[in-house]
Amino acid sequence: MPVTPHGALLVAGTTSDAGKSALVAGLCRSLHRRGISVAPFKAQNMSNNSMVTPDGGEIGRAQAMQAHACGLTPSVDLNPVLLKPGSDRTSQVVVRGRADGQVSALSYRTRTGALKEVVVDALTRLRSRYDVVVCEGAGSPAEINLRATDLANMGLAEAADLPVVVVGDIDRGGVLAHLFGTVAVLSPSDQARIAGFVINKFRGDPALLAPGLDQLRALTGRPTFGVVPWSDRLWLDAEDSLSAVADGVLGRPGPPLGDQWLRVAVVRLPRISNATDAEALACEPGVAVRYVTEPSRLLDADVVLLPGSKATVSDLAWLRDSGLADGVLAHAAAGKPVLGICGGYQMLGRRITDEGVEFTGSVDGLGLLDLEIVFDPEKHLGTPTGTALGEPVTGYEIHHGRVVRSGDPGLVGDEGSDRGNVLGTHWHGLLENDSFRRVLLGRLADLAGRTGFAVAPDTSFAAERTAQLDVLADLVDGHLDIRALDHVISHGPDPDLPVVASGLAESRR
Fold it and tell me: Which of 55, 99, 103, 245 is 20 to 30 A from 330 (CA-CA)?
């Protein structure tokens, strides 16, 4: 075996969305394909894309995807601390899969001492069970103002004695400065853990980049383990970021099997959660899925999808203020289909009442479903199974809102709502059920008048997700120095790495 059992690596990034999640997934998949038992780990994630594990807890969606890359069932140990932003200033804290209060950026720092024990315990358990654990950092280790209370970057590397690889996104520009600067601002002891670099999303001639990599090594004493090229095949399971949910077509839709497209508009709510629910639709030939943020984008849509939200009531107010609510109502009045998931489902009802989870009071919903919602202080988590539109389905639930009255037929057994052209459910992941999705697409196309749209008989969402993970592993195997990374995982960084001179590189504790 090329790696020593119980080895580990931390993948840090120069910025958010530098490619940490993808690189961890690719490394995990590569190790798994070589027969090495491997697990992913993210000590602290900040994301409203989450899922429910079979052991009943809530973790970041990216860690569930990385678990799939390893051939593992997701568990709360993979992501022991999850922050779910409900506003620009506050987040819900999820500890070992369960909601544990609200924090601001400042108040959270008072909790990090206790949370570090939770994080280190989870990582210790994983390292005892697997040959390798590939850890993902959060944000950037260069956020030295947060170093004293850091749980996910150099603080984790110090606590668990981890070697670190720093990944930078060259597509943003300035990647060499980002990599150099990330090392230079760290204390000497933190610098000693930085084994080298990976450059991500490269387009162009590698010969033009090579002199820069040589100079980067001369300046830092650290190698670049490889340059991963840009791939337009990678779009599933994107982490929360502006690029992941900006206006634009989701994925790379294949041409329709019939002579018409089915156009789906997903409203990009300010606090959108589980935006990945729409990805299963985007895997279908002839289904064009687009995120929208203003009313004119609804005019040529065949289907409108209201996704989940971490701040349902304030996002409902934004929906009205933006004019999108009128667009959704007009779409439904024309007999065209509207689908709501979780928070979007709650918005479609008649009334939402809350006694302190998001606000205190009651607000009117859009009134498209005969539904009343009350927010419970306790979050409901579940991994239910059932039947929808005559097909067996599974899914997962993450919500405070509880249906207290419904006059509509159920969509999933007695759950959810099916009012003809307006449908809703609390179940995330419902669209990942292939047979259900095919029946639903046929119904949506009929309601939209797209008689020339043909539903593909054999699209497998699970197979498409696995194929993308294999693309990531192929990129890792083809463009990174795997032998060198194996050595870092097993033996740590070169002990003779130099300290990069900087006025900021002082010891900070």
Answer: 245
- Let me know the angle formed at the C-alpha of 419 by 416 and 425, rounded to the nearest 5 degrees: 20
So what's the pLDDT on residue 436?
Answer: 98
342 counts as catalytic: yes
| Domain-embedded: residue 500 | no
- d(Cα 256, Cα 265) in Å, to the nearest integer? 17
Q: Of these residues, 342, 399, 400, 426, which one is catalytic?
A: 342
- Residue 115 structure tokens: 């949370």
List CB contacts of 324: < 8 A, sequence separation 6 or more.
Answer: 267, 292, 293, 294, 295, 298
**Residue 223, burial from CB neighbour count under 10 angstroms (0-12, 13-18, 19+):** middle
Domain span at residue 377 reads: 247-460
In b/e form, how buried is each residue of 430-464, taking b as 16+ CB within 10 angstroms? Answer: bbbbbebbbebbebbbebbebeebbbbeebebeeb
Looking at the structure, do residues 269 and 186 belong to the same domain, yes or no?
no
Which stretches of 195-339 are DSSP H helices? 206-220, 242-245, 279-282, 312-321, 324-333
If asked whether residues 113 and 152 sit together in one domain, one would say: yes
Domain at 87, CATH number = 3.40.50.300
Confidence of residue 373 (pLDDT cuts 50, 70, 90): very high
Number of domains in the chain: 2
Q: Give this prediction's pTM.
A: 0.90
Do 199 and 254 lie in one domain? The reply is no
> Of 32, 428, 479, 487, which residue is the catalytic one?
428
- 312, two tokens: 């349902």
Sign of CA dihedral 425, 313, 49, 123: negative
Residues 279, 375 share a domain: yes
Look at residue 505 and tell me if it is in a domain: no
Residue 95: predicted pLDDT: 94
- In the chain, count H helices and then E strands: 16, 27
DSSP assigned state of 467: H
pLDDT of 200-250, one tens digit each? 999 988 899 999 999 999 999 999 999 999 887 776 655 544 344 445 778
Overall average pLDDT of the 85-108 stretch: 85
Pairing between β-strand 397-406 and β-strand 371-382 as defined by DSSP bridges: antiparallel
Which range, of 250-254, 420-424, 457-461, averages the lowest pLDDT?
Answer: 250-254
pLDDT tier, 53 (very low <50, low <70, confident <90, very high otherwise): very high
Same structural domain, 21 and 111: yes
Residue 78 to residue 60: CA distance in whole angstroms: 9
